[in-house]
Amino acid sequence: MAVTSGKQQTQTSSTARKARIVVFAAAAIVVLAIISAFAWPGWAVRHVPQPMDVPMAVASASPTIDAKALPANASELLKAMPEHVSDFARTDAQATDEWDASSPLEEYRLTYSTGDEAKDVQVVVGQWTSEQEAVSQYNALTKVLDGDEIAAGNVKVNGANTGAYVVNADKGDDAKAVAVWRNDTVCVRISGPKASVETVFKLFPL
Question: Where are its TM segments located (predicted)?
Answer without folding.
Answer: 21-43
